[in-house]
Amino acid sequence: MPDAIPAVRSQRLGKDILDEVPAYDLIELFFFAYRDFVSDPDRILDEYGFGRAHHRVLHFVDRQPGLTIAELLDILRITKQSLNRVLKELIEKDFVESRMGTADRRQRLLYVTAQGHDLALKLAKLQTRRIMQALADLEPEGKALISGYLLRLIDPDDRDHVERLVFGAGET
Amino acid sequence: MPDAIPAVRSQRLGKDILDEVPAYDLIELFFFAYRDFVSDPDRILDEYGFGRAHHRVLHFVDRQPGLTIAELLDILRITKQSLNRVLKELIEKDFVESRMGTADRRQRLLYVTAQGHDLALKLAKLQTRRIMQALADLEPEGKALISGYLLRLIDPDDRDHVERLVFGAGET
DNA sequence: TGAGATATGTCAACAAGGCTGACTTAAAAA
DNA sequence: TTTTTAAGTCAGCCTTGTTGACATATCTCA
């Protein structure tokens, strides 16, 4: 009885497994990997008196010059009060600048300064080293494979938005 | 001149790229993916008056019954004061229990209660659903491939430790 | 056995980075 | 002209991390 119709049985298992057997290994690896991934920049940020919140803002403004406050809030999913606290510091220390919108003068368009760009790049390179070295022998398809997986981890509703943001950042 | 020795040129590029061209796509995808990954449990944790810090503690105690405080601190890399705050709440609300060590009576061995195990499992399954569905057609090698990649993202010094923790959690 | 090391617990104070709610101002849109 | 929208600000709160100091029980080693 237990070894009857093995093909069907393993097919059912393949489906049930989604709900029945937790993927503890991936859950934990994701936790540890992300921790090391974000901790790389910490040392450098410290030297400037910045934290991870500043890093996130600097990163996205560097990547998308002219970003508005509303767009940035949408990306970070924090409140404007939280954003304002770190953004104010980035502006005061001259890493980011805020210009009045041209089409809509209520908007503030955000740009990194030269100094801001240098820091953003430095931090991105640091994270890139880890990310690329981990690809190891997965090349040449590895990168597409990993980015595809990460994209599918994102909520389906946001996936298109993120995809545009990540892969189409150069466009207008 | 530009199209001379293309093989060598692309080989050099392949190496230089590690330091020169930031992998913005992977950096950002990792950020968004991790955010959605950890946000799944939030709603449920809220119902119990717990946060992410409680989740992490509950998870690792569930996975490794009999864990000591020192071992848990080593996994989470937080101070004992921070740990104690959330651990105390988990114990008070009867999700975790602390027993005196047998070999060394200074130690406290941590165990989840039935209630604690149920919650840990519920949260793990929630995260497993996302993680496994994202594997999609990467099967059957997908899981090993992703876990290999995540493992290589971890600091080389900790890699063995994490590997034992993640893959050898059933053993004594 | 006694001294020192170790595992844990606790108190107090502080910081980063989230949050809510209320209110203002300037500019755009209806 | 009225209403809506984009942004800024004030005040206060929460969670989760930190440091520093100190207490207690237990183990280990000379």
From TrEMBL, chains A, B:
A molecular-function term among this protein's GO annotations: DNA binding
* Residues covered by the HTH marR-type domain: 23-155
Q: Name one GO biological process term.
A: response to stress
Show the InterPro entries listed in the entry: HTH_MarR-typ (IPR000835), MarR/SlyA-like (IPR039422), Tscrpt_reg_MarR-type_CS (IPR023187), WH-like_DNA-bd_sf (IPR036388), WH_DNA-bd_sf (IPR036390)
- Report keywords, A-Z: DNA-binding, Transcription, Transcription regulation
| A Pfam cross-reference name | MarR_2
List the protein's name.
MarR family transcriptional regulator
Originating species: Microvirga alba
